[in-house]
Amino acid sequence: MSLRISNAISVPQSIENRKIGKPKQGHKAAATSGISLDKARKSESSNHRNSDPLRFEVTNLNEQSVSLQQKISSRQAALSNLEELSTRVENLKSNSKNPQQLQGTLKDLGELVESAEFEGKSLLKGPAKSTSNNPEIEAVTVKDPPQIGSYKLSILGKVTEGSLQYRIQVADEPDFKKSLLTALSPATGIIEGVEIYFEEKEGKQEAELEIKAPVDGDFPVPDFQNSLAKLETRQENPEQLEREADQTLRKIGTTINGLSEGLDGDISRFQSISNAQENIRAAVSEPRSVSNAIEALESLNSEIVKQSSNLSNLFNSSDTAKDLLE
Which residues constitute the domain of residue 158? Predict the structure, then answer.
């Protein structure tokens, strides 16, 4: 289904918050997709010349649409496997006091973590997107983008009034220092967009963390091989096993939330691009109405701005397109 727009030119805000007025002969204005439509506007009186830049716009948007479809499919596959992983960890908790069933559940977990793939790419196992030099302390990204950087982390656990409490300090010299008092692992709020998972024990723990930016727009799903290894080492102690299972379920849940948020944005952008494509195709079939195509792209830009999206993520070939059109 397509939304056919009117021939009237809207007056939206551009990316630099400058007004875009009604196009005139020879007047330059930045097209909302990041691609210059000066030539299309200047050529409005020429049916033959109008169609070529608009067809190029359709081709360019097709490329972005295909890329988004692949990204959406990858995230949907990751979500499906994470939900299945959550179910199996719940089963593990239920079987924590039954050694025979516990072995079977651990085997099922291992097979899922090993086999979960999308187009040959592993979904639930390493390499970890963020790193720690202490295997007992793990940084898990829960919101994209996280506060990237290298950090020194110190955790001091001690018993206070019969309960174990932790004072966590993080520093990124010379500007960033923060401390947090908590009785739970993981700790949130110490580094923006990141959860810190650590061993619940007395004494001092330290680590050097490197929080990395997402690669190619992928949400940084943690390495669940590490979680599986911890579950296996605790199978002789049901209480410790259940506590570790709760940690793993928390990790799965926050990862699902982060992935879902990104997926919703991707689907919305994909729908906006699809609407713009159909409006541009309509303009190509009616060359005297180039304003239809211009408004279609401006409408797409408005949607992207509302979603606080970076234009370069969608139109990464804009420089090439600009050269071809000008």
Answer: 130-213
